[in-house]
Description:
The chain has 418 residues and is an all-alpha fold. The chain has helices at 4-27, 29-37, 41-72, 76-93, 102-125, 127-130, 136-163, 178-181, 183-194, 196-201, 217-233, 235-266, 270-298, 300-320, 324-352, 358-371, 375-387, 390-394, 396-408. Helix 12 (235-266) runs antiparallel to helix 15 (324-352) and helix 14 (300-320) packs antiparallel against helix 15. The longest helix is centred in the N-terminal third of the chain and has 32 residues, at 41-72. The model is unreliable at 206-213 (pLDDT under 50).
Amino acid sequence: MADKKALFGWAMYDFANSAFTTLVVTFVYATYFTKAIAPDVISGTVLWSRAITVSSLVIALTTPFLGALADAGQRRKTFLLTSTAVAVFCSVMLYHPLPGQVYQALFWFVLGNVAFETGCVFYNAFLPEVAPPDKIGSVSGIGWALGYLGGLAAMFIAMATMVNPETPWFGLSRELGQNIRATNILVALWFAVFSIPFFLFVREGETRAKSGVVISFADTCRDLWATMRDVGRLRDVFRFLVARLLYNDGLITIFAFGGIYAAGTFAFTFQEIMVFGIVLNVAAGLGALVFGFVDDRLGSRNTVQISLVGLTVAALTAVFATEKSLFWLAGILVGVFAGPNQSASRSLMARIVPPDQKSRFFGFYAFSGKFTSFLGPLFLGLLTSFSGSQRVGFSVVIVFFVVGGWLLAGVKEGKNYK
């Protein structure tokens, strides 16, 4: 029997941390940095891409060790509390950098983003404990849906009280972007308050904890190498993971630079970017819901391929659009197909790996997703810097989607692990 309080607490953490990704990483602070803190939009885009790259590299290098600790069940709740506290603190500190204080802003963003992603490692490790074995997918989906809802609610509150009003609430001023910078305080409060149910109701699994066992870096490397050998032996698993590395990098790049691109290329105001974020969250929620049924009928691989076609069309539209209306269409398409892409990728992995080794393979699945997540932002920044055009830089996501989809076409869905 599932502990309903634990399920509620676990899902609420997704609701809590989504404010950070929605307001800081994607829509508000990223745009504010390029338009107000950095010298100009182009250099701001390049600097932000480097910050994403640095944080992604740090996450990739630390994920194997942290994942090993999570798998062993050692003090995961303590580590999650620590990473949450650091992310909340960094969100508060992001309020302080003023125009021109570039490296102060980037320092607190990189540290906060690393803490946020580190927390996700431990948070995800609790899923098999709070959910019954036959309900892991639906519980994970509920958390994902609450994440969209949390990001949407935080975005709406920020827009209604801080960004849109001529006289912002809470005694805030528009001078030096104080009303925009204050959205980081909202993120900190949101993250801190709504993560409380997790720490109250979710307990560390006693049967998984290995008291007194110290996991060394060498042990972690040996476990990772053993899993890599198994992945290399299973052709479809290997091909799928390589395909996912590519198309997932494209998706990460869109999430990180969608707001920046809208502001720099289409002159979106902060108000328009906030509305844009709300529309994307609504579209993503509806897309994830509808394509869940498509996954059941057509299979996971076909669902991922359909989503990649949609994302490619969206990216092409965004790159070549000359009017805001077409860019809005591209954004809605991204929302509709992003959720199905991620959820169907996870279910496809479950269908092609040996059933008695799912934990190990999903651990490598998570690691591999972070290992190259810096490539999209890095190439976007380089292309933008060399060409002086955000359009040229943003076009890199099309390559990731097309090549990833081509590799995925060769993956056979089913039991191919004998």
